Amino acid sequence: MSSLGQDEKRYDPLDTTMSFVDRPDDLDPLSSEDEEECLRAEMSCGHAVTPQSLTGWCRSLLDQGQYKFRCPAINEDTQEKCGAIWSYREVRRLADLSAEEMEYFEENMARLAAAEYQEFKACPGCKTYVERKNLTNLCVRCLVCAADKKKVFQFCWQCLKPWKGPAPRSDRCDNDGCINHDLELLRTCKTTSFPQVRGVDACPSIRACPTCGQKVEHDKTGCKNIICPRCQVEFCFVCLKLTPECLKTSSYFIPCSDGVAPRQTSIPVWRRK
C-alpha cells in the first residue's frame, strides 16, 4: 500500500494479498462514482471498503468508546446491519494505517479494553488502586491498608470515604452526601429528540445500558438504536429493549410500540461471563 496521508490513501493494484472488487464502497455508498481510480477491497465479511472509509469508520468507533470494530453495512438480503467483527490486524492492513494512526488506535484500544474488563478506584487510605470483585456491594475492603494498619479497613466505593454503617449495601453508606452520581445524572439529564425518527421527543439524553449499566449518549444521527461501547450489545435508546426485541414490533426508524421508556431509577449490574 501507499504511505500517503489519509485523504490520499490508495491500494496497490498489484497487491495479491487483497481481494479487489468492482462495486461501490459499502461504508460510504454516497461517495462519488467518479472515483474509479480508487480501488475497493473486500473485507472478511464480504463488504467493500476503501482505506479512507475504513479508517474513518473505525476511528469514529474509537471516539465513541468502542474498541471492537463492527461492520455497519446493510446486508441486501436481510436489510439488517452486518455486524461482523473485524480483527485489528485486518483493519490495520486494509485501512493502511500510518505509524501515527496505529499508535492512536492501539493506545485507545488498550485503554478501552482495560475499562471494560476491570473496575479500579484509589483507596482513600493508601491511594493504592483496588479492584472491586462484588459489583453489587459498595463496601470494599483494602488489603494493603489492612496489612499496614493491622486491622480491617473498608471504604465506600461510591463516596470514597471510610465505610460507615451496616454492610453489604448496594445503594449508599451512612456518610453524609453519599449519593449515586450516575443515578442522579439519569434523573436530571436533559431530554432530546431524534430527527430521523418521526414522533420521538422528550427522550432522556443519557441512558444506562440495559445489559451492563454503562452510561451512554446517542449522537441523534441515524436510527434510534445504539451499540454499548462496553458490552457491545445493541439496544433501542428510546424504549430500552434489546434491538431484536424492539424490532419485533417496530423498526430502526419508526417509533417504538411501547413509546419512550421513562427515566431509569436503577442501573443494571453487568454479569460478565
UniProtKB/TrEMBL annotation:
Residues 1-13 have a biased composition (Basic and acidic residues). SUPFAM superfamilies: RING/U-box. Pfam families: IBR_1. Gene3D superfamilies: 1.20.120.1750. Residues 1-31 are annotated as: Disordered. This is RBR-type E3 ubiquitin transferase. It comes from Xenoophorus captivus. The lineage of its organism: Eukaryota, Metazoa, Chordata, Craniata, Vertebrata.
